[in-house]
## 1
Amino acid sequence: MGSVHAGACDFNELQYQKRKELRRGTRAGSISIYCGNQAVEDARIDWASTPKDKVGVYIGITEHGNVETENEIANIAQFDNDTKFWTHHHNPRTVANNPAGELTLNMGITGPHYTVGAACAAGNAGLIQAVQMLQLGEVDLAIAGGVSESIHTFGIFAAFNSQGALARHSDALQASRPFDTERNGIVVSEGGCLYTLERLEEAEARGAKIYGVISGYAINSDATDFVLANPERQAQCVQKALDRAQLKANDIDIVNAHATATPMGDIQEAKALMSIFGEQPNPSINATKGFIGHCMGAAGAIELAGNLPAFDDHQVHPCLNINNLDPDCDIPGLVRDQPLQKQKIQHILNNSFGMLGINSVVIVSHYPGAKPT
């Protein structure tokens, strides 16, 4: 396979954990702990007086456990595969709820926690689960989004390579190139992004800093192929989110495309976007993976965060690395090369799609004045 490009996180793992905790836990858990603590601090929540049994943790993941299993197999191979050298920490490291569970241990959260396995749609799915649990009254505060430690597993690189879906380029900064004619695959990245979510009236009552209001969402399934996306189902997911938000397609100011830079994936999504937004003058389309690669289960949450500043500066960030636009991806409103300045930004629609045909869409609206879903 040779050398491959990857996006790696650089953060202070010891800010919220001790070395012993790092050795016992997982990289995904450490990312979750860092992001969760940062989110609560940024939200200016009085954590000491917050009822921990009314806090829920909902973290989207693409997969979990592969990193630890591969590492253990490599370790015992040095000892003639003697399982007495297999770590007793393996099970808690590899259970699917690990990234969310480690966060609850670190922050003393006693409310519900679980991960949401939704392939590369997981970041949005974590947010959607949080919204629903808040609506049900199960929690009063949710910490939600997505994390990924995928660059630490050999299997994901080998699999994408065997699919012909792993990006190759002499310049790592140009390897991820959504919608470009020369795109040739994914740059796998690790990452994490967690938000604090509250019911709007409660956030207002405590004078919270509100970045936006989740006004619409949807999840559906293609039911057609293991890998190849179905543009009709993707378009239906977008429309369901618009309907839930009681918005028209032309009300959307920014559409963040999933756009992984795979040859067929970008074309399929372009068809879906054109069927909904193609004749609308207002929506501006961008893609974030040219900046950061594909953060897998964290992608939707991170890419949404990359667009939220537009509520303040009214700028739409561009798609990077489109030197030659693929005619099959020539979507009206596509922002290339330079940021686009708009008069106002009221609604951002965030696409995240994944293998086995899972589609997710989240719409975030500007506050004040926006109505929650």
## 2
Amino acid sequence: MKTNGARFLESLGIPFELREYEVDPNDLSALTVAKKIGMPPEQVFKTLLVTGGPNVYRFAVIPGDAELDFKKLARASGLRKAEMAPLKDVQPLTGYIRGGVTLFGARKPYPVYIDETVILFDQISVSAGARGTQLILSPADYLRAAQALEVEVQTADITKDIQKSSGAPGPGSQQTGLRLRGGDLDSETWERTNSGTGGAPSLHRPFGARVGDDEPNDPSSPEGHA
């Protein structure tokens, strides 16, 4: 099924794959979507609408097996605080219903904050703008499409983690995100990120175990939009 999200990517000449799955209205979790489309949950990113106060909104894009850390997001986005936008406001603000929220084709573009792990993969999946349909594309193309919205786009550590017992992060290891603004994603940025290895980029902060979202599927929960 062609969606507004897919049409937006087509308008930019960005390659993608549409992958459909059977929708269970009682289970819209990203973990379930990942199983249905045959991808690891850490590569299936969910798009959440967050508010920092009246008429202040941000998109947060995080892996399907992770939970948004509101304090980290607030720091990254320069907000005093951040919390989930009420579910009743999501469709009027974005044009999309729970389980089908995406950046692309939304009624209004809001600044975008993407978990920094996005750059670790060859491909990621995000909602195409409708339940039952996912977009598959490269992280570089996803970031390039996000920049075309002409809003601030930043990668940052915005998810909760449980530090492994092997040791704590060293000094200066808390901020590893790349701040991106309108325009093309330049090759220098990606060369620096990939460290010339040709493989997955090496991040300075050791990632701990992620806190998943496999709790009961509650629409009012912090993971209730994507």
## 3
Amino acid sequence: MQRQWTLTYKSNDRAGGRARDGSRHRGAMMTFRTMSRSRRAHLSCVIVMGALIGGCASSNDVTKALNPDPPAKMYAEADAFLAKGYHEEAAKRFEELDRDHPYAPEARRAMVMAAYAFYKAGKHPEAIASARRFTSLHPGSKDAALAHHVVASAYFDDIKDPTHDQTAARRALAELRIITSRYPESPYAKQAENRIRIAEDSIAASEMNVGRYYLKKGQYVAAINRFKVVVAEHQTTQHVEEALHRLVEANVALGIIPEAQSAAAVLGYNYPSSKWYQNSFALLGKQGVKPQESQGSWISRQWKTLAPGAPTASPKPAPASQQPASPTLEPLPPERAPRSDVPTASSTRPARLMGLTAIQ
């Protein structure tokens, strides 16, 4: 019988592929049937043992998936990993809690804590994605401020020096402003105020670098656009004085004297002792004019500078003690989990505001 099957298989193999596949299946069944009883029993045991070994390897995972631990226990385990400094493992455990018990009270907190754990592990993209997901699902919860804080901190840590791209600084600034505007009473507001000044100073410095480059190359319109950004959007930084003077230079080079006079008037009104005002005053003097507000300039349309008909002050020498100091980067607070004692800035310093009032 076994010889007959072999001959049939060979003939079908010559006949074609479809017949060959069918003959193989029939041949395998006939071979198993023609085996002795002992050999069949041995083969059956081998198959059963293989199935048992494969099942044992995944039985724990299946049991865990079908019967996960209670949410309180899972949260405690994840929090313990976070306290010990195993941030990646903690983030994984928090995400498992959110996945296994999406409607449990602990799941909402676990979502934002996963973002925080990713941030502590240095995985900023994962931290931002997890925190963004939380703010989109729970924008009004009490932990929303923490989620925005994680996003802002991740972007803030990625800020580069002013000679490089400032995308991270701009994104950090947007998140920090959300914290100060929506959550002014949160533990993160004070630190956000300090970081806003640092981010704005970095962005303004970058704009000044590009503006100076255009000014040096004689591309005055491009330079003016850069200096306008500093004057209009970052007027609390130390770069605003130079930006106003560079506007005077660029407009004089283009022959737009009224705009140059207005920029000098704003500079002299707010910083009469500045060296930049002295340079602007001297530059306009070479053109036979003085600083004077022009009602048609963009500065006059955006800001209230001088009272109508007010005389323009001459520049005064600046005492050494009044020279503007460069802002220093404050050290960040020690790392700790954001439970009831969230990290905040140890000290703050008031912003240097221009003496300008926006037109309502």
## 4
Amino acid sequence: MEIFALTFQPYGLTGRQAKLSSVDNLSVNQSTLRFSTTIFRHIQVIDNNPITGARMSGLDRIPTHIEGLDENMQGGIPQGHICLVAGASGAMKSSLTFSMLYNAVLYGETSGIYITLEQGKESLRAHMSNMGMNVDDPRVRNRIAIIDLVDLRVQLDEQGMSNRVDWMGQLIKQLTSYRQSIGFELLVFDSLGAFFTLTKMENPRDEIFRLFEAVRRLELTSFFICEMTGEDHKQFGEYGIEDYLSDGVIHLVMERSADDVSRKMSVIKMRHTNHMLGYKPFKWKPEEQRFTTL
């Protein structure tokens, strides 16, 4: 498994390029996505060619490898979808999402990256290995990259430079660079809430649309982890618009009964997919290195 460290250029210093370094001294050519600000001011979705049931079944899909879920979701998540994985702390959002990435790479012809802003790479490696997901397995080692922004985030905060970094622009730029150089197809972003503390969100809908549209243009199948917020914690994400702009929403909950705690999951939304409704208990099957809803 490759682990990358990023250095972002301060906002406004156009003479310098953001640099990417890896343990393998991977050299990546930088590229930039340019967006017209007028595109994001008026968002209108027009579907002149709706997808029928027959066409839905023929879509290329990425299996989640969650036992009992793919069978009730036409085989998996449509390629190119942007999915939220939402839930409270302790609901196993990171574990479940990493397992989908891990097993998709282990059993399929694909590759992916996991961007973390909250849990350091060594902690993440240890946690997943403890669950039985061997990140040093030769079958996945060279096809999963962990991009750790935790240390950079702390360093910039200490130096008082966080507000000088165009985090949104640099993130889009780096994703574009990775896509062109590494050729990954799956993206896990952990988490939106942590990222929003770094970037100025004067117009959240436009900025989130800007990020999601960039990911769509890169033809990535992506999973964005977020917390439940708002009154009674019923809002998906920080601004309550993330679920509207995404293609799918997977909701993880924790239910308490006396001293017992159970975890359940539900597919709240999955465009172009006939999927199960309702909440199903889920748990980890260490002998198979995957989650199950059965």
